Amino acid sequence: MSLEVRDLVIEIGGRTLVDGVSFAVADGQRFGLIGESGSGKSLTALAVMGLLPEEATAHGSIRWNGVELIGMPDRELARLRGDDIGMVFQEPRTALNPIRTVGRQIAESIRIHERIGRRAARVRAIAEAARVHLPEPESIVDRYPHQLSGGQRQRAAIAMALACRPDLLIADEPTTALDVTIQAEVLRLLHALVQEQGMSLVFITHDLAVLSQIATHAAVLEHGRVVEQGAVGTLLSTPSSPVTRALLRDATATLWRPDGDGNGGAS
C-alpha cells in the first residue's frame, strides 16, 4: 500500500473532529473520501499533507510507503509535498496567489524540487499548462489568476499539483465551485492524468454521483468516523449505512462513463 491511515484522531480546541479514521490506498488506486460538510474528510487530507492548523493535534498513524508522517519534521514533509504527494484544493481562487502569474506558480515547485533555472522552468510551465489543456499555453502562463475563468483556474491548480509528477494526488472537492459542464471536463482530465501517470488518487467530495465517476473504492465519513467502506459500485447498489443511503438520494451529478462500461466507479 502506498498510503495507510490507521486510527487517525485529530483534535482542535479540545474537540475531536476526526475519530479513529482508517483506510488504505494501493499503488495506482483511485480512492474516495465522501461525507457531508464537517465530516472530517478535508481535515484527514490536510493531516496527510502535514498542513493541519497550528492548534490541531494528530494521533494515530499515517504511513507513506512505510514511512510514518505524523511527527515528521516540517522540512522533511516539505520535500514530500509536490514531489511525492500533490494536492488540489477546493477553491483555486484562494489556492492561487493573486499577485503572481499562473506560469510562475506552476514553475515554483519545479524550481524548488528540481533546481532548474527560471528560463527552463518557464518552458516546463508552458508544457504543464498544455498538459492540462489550458488554451494558448504560451500566453496563458503570463496571465494572473483573476484573468482566468473558474475552470481555467482549476486546471492551473491541477498543473501546479502535478508539475513534479507525484505518486499520489489528493483532490479536495476540486469540482464543487464549477458548473456541471466544466465539472465533467475537470473529472475527465483528472481521470486521464491519473491513468497516464499511474499515480494513486484520493478524491474528496460530498457527492456520490461525482465520486462514482472517478473512484473505484471509498470510505464514507460522518462526524469524523468511517461509517462504511468498500467498492464504489457496492456503495451505489447496496449501501449499508443511513449516511450512504442519504448521499445516494442527494446525488445530483450526471453520471459520466470514463471506461465505457456504464459504471465508472466500479471498474
Automatic annotation (TrEMBL):
<keyword id="KW-0813">Transport</keyword>
<dbReference type="InterPro" id="IPR017871">
    <property type="entry name" value="ABC_transporter-like_CS"/>
</dbReference>
<keyword id="KW-0472">Membrane</keyword>
<feature type="domain" description="ABC transporter">
    <location>
        <begin position="3"/>
        <end position="248"/>
    </location>
</feature>
<protein>
    <recommendedName>
        <fullName>ABC transporter domain-containing protein</fullName>
    </recommendedName>
</protein>
<dbReference type="InterPro" id="IPR003439">
    <property type="entry name" value="ABC_transporter-like_ATP-bd"/>
</dbReference>
<keyword id="KW-0067">ATP-binding</keyword>
<comment type="similarity">
    <text>Belongs to the ABC transporter superfamily.</text>
</comment>
<dbReference type="Pfam" id="PF00005">
    <property type="entry name" value="ABC_tran"/>
</dbReference>
<dbReference type="InterPro" id="IPR027417">
    <property type="entry name" value="P-loop_NTPase"/>
</dbReference>
<dbReference type="InterPro" id="IPR003593">
    <property type="entry name" value="AAA+_ATPase"/>
</dbReference>
<keyword id="KW-0547">Nucleotide-binding</keyword>
<keyword id="KW-1003">Cell membrane</keyword>
<dbReference type="InterPro" id="IPR050388">
    <property type="entry name" value="ABC_Ni/Peptide_Import"/>
</dbReference>
